[in-house]
Every structure is written in C-alpha cells, then in structure tokens.
Design brief:
Two copies of one chain form a homodimer. With 223 residues, chain A is of the alpha/beta class. Chain A is built from six helices and ten strands, in the order E-E-E-H-E-E-H-E-H-H-H-E-H-E-E-E.
C-alpha cells in the first residue's frame, strides 16, 4: 500500500519558490487502480516522482508498504525502486546507445535474472507491446509511440508490485493505447499490482477504479 | 500550397530496410487545416519531416509553394524552414541551457527581428500559451505539458505561413489543448496559415477540415 501524509514539494529557482505540491494526503490500497487527473503543471509528475522514490518531499511523509521513504538513504531507495516499482516516465528516459531489446532487458540484469529467463521475458514483453519487429532499433530509430512502448515494456518486464505510469498513452493511437491498458489490467488481476496513472486521456479512465483530481499542487476532488 | 508526388522514405538499419513511406501523394491548398491520422509507427512524423524540409525523400517530390525541395541544397532548405515553417516537434527539441523565453526568442533572432519587437512578441506568445509565469524556467524546470507549450510558442511566434504540428496536445489536458488549437485556428483565419497536424487526439479533430489516414506508410483513406 502507499500512504502520503501532508506532503509538500518545493523547487527553488533563483529567488523564486515554486510550490509544486501543497499538502497532499492520499492512501492507495494494494491492487487498486487509480488515476491522477489535472491540468498541465498541476503536480502529477512531481507526485509520481515522490511515490516512486525518485525524489523526496520538502515536508511530510511518503510510506511504501509500511516503510517511511522520506528519511531513507539513497541505497535503500534504490532497492525499493529496483524491486517494487515499474515507472513509466513521461519523457521515457531510454538509454540512447542501447537497442529496444537492451533497454527492456536492463532492469532484469539489475535484479540478477539469469540470461535465458531474461531473453524469454524480454521477447514476450516486446511482443505484447507490438515491438518484436523493432527490437534491434535504437531510440532514435523509433517513432515517438514506439519509444513510449519501450519505456512501458521496460517498466512492466520486472512484474512490479507498483506501476507508476506518467501519461503512458500520450503518444499512442486509440488501439495501441487500449492494448497497453489491457496489459496493465492483466498484471493487476494476476499479481495484484497497484497502479497509479497520471493521465489526460479519457480512454485510460475506463480502466480506473478511483480518480484523484489535482489542481495547483492540491487534491481538489476524489471520485 | 504543398504537393507530394509519389513520395518514398526508406531507412537502412544494418542489413534491414524500413520503408517508412511507400508512395504517398498529397495536395494541401493554402490556408487548409488538415490532419494526418494513423497508428503508432505508420509514418506521420516521417511525412511531416519531409514537408518541413528536415529530411529528403528517398524517391518522389516534395513541392512547397511551387519549389521542388527534394533537390535543394541545405542552405536553401534552411531558408525555407526559417521563413515559412513553424514546426512543433513530437519530442519538442528545446535547447536545455536556454530558458523558456530564450527558446521562444531564438527563431526571431535568426530572422533579424529587432530587440524591442522580439521582446513584445515573445511575451505575447508566452502569455497566450499560459506560460508567462514560467518564462525564466529552463526545460528541466518545467512540466511535460509546459515544455510542449514552449515548443508550440516557439513555432508560432514567427507567424509562419505553414504550421506542422506533430502531436501538439499529447501532453496537455483538454482545456489547455483547446487553448492551443484556438491559437492555431486564429493564425489560420488572420494570416491564412496552412496547418498540418499529426494527432491521436479526437479533440483536435474538431478544428480540422480534412482528414488523411495513414497506415504502414500509405494513405489508405481521406475524408
Ligand atoms: N532512423 C530510423 N531508422 C530506422 N527506422 C526508423 C527511423 N526513424 C523511424 N523509423 C521507423 O519508421 C516508421 C515510421 O516512423 P514515424 O516516426 O514516422 O511514425 P509515426 O506515425 O510518427 O508514429 P508515432 O505515432 O508513434 O509517433 C516506424 O516504424 C519507425 O520504427
Ligand atoms: N526543477 C524544477 N524547478 C522549478 N519548478 C519546477 C521544477 N520541476 C517542476 N517544476 C514546476 O512544478 C510544477 C508541477 O510540475 P509537474 O511536472 O509535476 O506537473 P504535471 O502535472 O506533471 O504537468 P504536465 O501535465 O504538464 O506533465 C510546474 O508548474 C513546474 O513548472
Ligand atoms: Mg507531467
Ligand atoms: Mg510520430
């Protein structure tokens, strides 16, 4: 489960202060599928980065499966990220010198998965997102939506217990976007993966059980 | 006007050949607003890159306002891009060391616009896309949708005669996306700008007069 207690995140820019999150409290139970909805700049990515242990709050607590991450050291945070969290980044963050195959394989190498099993799982995941034909392309030899699908495949290949998806269908047509949500839904049904999706895409919302509305760094509504 | 005559684009990847466009013919009249629709990987970005003189076809001709660009040298292509074309890239292509203000200002500097007029036009455009408050942020200090809006502002600030928009609302919520399309529509009404939008977003399509459907590098339907 994931608990946020009165979380603040500030960025300092020269003399100005940007308050990206202002007192966010939230509870997400194991195997829930929820979405974070809100205007551009409202704090969705910042919120996901805190839950994903990529960043730490200025104030308040982020508690993942009973552990308070806001006071952990970098090594501990790295372990949580590597083992529990599949993060689909808004800007993909692919490694430019590696092929699609190698990008997807990387987290399995970090987890010490043996070579044969890595190969089987990477091929299966690339096939699921429709990229088998493009496995040897580097990111700059792929379309925008193909890069997005490499980022998705890389996040999901570890069978994570938490998926954080930052606008995962932004560059995908309706059909392909639906295929991705079906994969995520199946993960949720088969291994109880908790899913938090930041999205502007109304088609994603049909898969979501609870909606959290963010505006100017605050939760303004839940349904 | 824009004319494509039997255009092919091939990429060579080691021993394999990727046929991104396979015999595309298209005519777009001055001040038309058209969209290119199609699945991820179908060739939309490749098509826009050819029209935008960022790349040249493997076969066939691209004719912009009566001039055949497929046989021009780089200097001539650069002149056309700088003076006529406002390109909103799918991957934004912002300069990381420049602020939002400076990124938007760059094309006006290239065109020799005097300092006072540059300032007035950059401020006006940043205001229109809702980013005035963020003008001194660098790209890594902006949200995904804010970066997208800097890319949009930079493309439109030159009052281009042709706008090529590659999924311009991918990272924007409905309200902000609508604001952007209104700006583009106004440009079309006031200075007869020709607009070609590659998009997956159904909300963009309400602004479009003609739809071109692309699949596997071919036009399969027009409406
Ligand atoms: N440099 C390259 N080398 C090899 N193949 C490439 C290269 N660039 C693009 N491709 C391939 O060409 C095809 C068309 O790519 P393009 O970027 O035009 O698609 P798209 O319609 O814009 O897709 P999306 O909606 O995902 O952005 C894709 O299958 C892609 O893998
Ligand atoms: N490093 C930074 N320095 C200063 N301000 C920042 C920084 N990173 C983000 N911000 C600001 O924090 C606010 C929230 O950003 P965030 O990326 O969380 O928004 P978002 O909801 O994901 O937006 P979008 O839908 O456009 O992706 C924005 O106004 C942004 O400009
Ligand atoms: Mg974001
Ligand atoms: Mg594209």
């Amino acid at each position: 489960s994931i608990v946020l207690k009165d979380v603040y995140k500030e960025y300092i820019l020269g003399k100005t202060k940007v308050e990206a999150l202002r007192g966010v409290s939230l509870e997400v139970s194991k195997s829930e599928i929820i979405s974070i909805i809100g205007p551009s700049g409202s704090g969705k990515t910042t919120l996901l980065n805190l839950i994903g242990c990529i960043d730490v709050p200025t104030k308040g607590e982020v508690i993942i499966d009973g552990e308070n991450t806001s006071t952990m050291d970098d090594d501990k945070l790295t372990l949580i990220r590597r083992h529990k969290i599949g993060f689909i980044f808004q800007t993909f963050n692919l490694i430019p010198v590696l092929t699609a195959y190698e990008n997807v394989e990387m987290p399995l190498i970090s987890l010490g998965v043996p070579k044969e099993e890595r190969h089987r799982r990477v091929i299966e995941m690339l096939d699921k997102v429709g990229l088998l034909e493009f496995k040897d392309h580097k990111p700059d030899e792929l379309s925008g939506g193909q890069r997005q699908r490499v980022a998705i495949a890389r996040a999901l290949v570890i069978n994570p217990s938490i998926v954080l998806a930052d606008e995962p269908t932004a560059n995908l047509d309706g059909e392909t976007g639906k295929k991705i949500m079906e994969i995520i839904k199946t993960l949720n049904e088969e291994i109880s993966t908790t899913v938090i999706v930041a999205t502007h895409d109304p088609r994603v919302l049909q898969y979501v059980e609870r909606k959290i509305y963010l505006e100017d760094g605050r939760i303004v509504r839940e349904e």
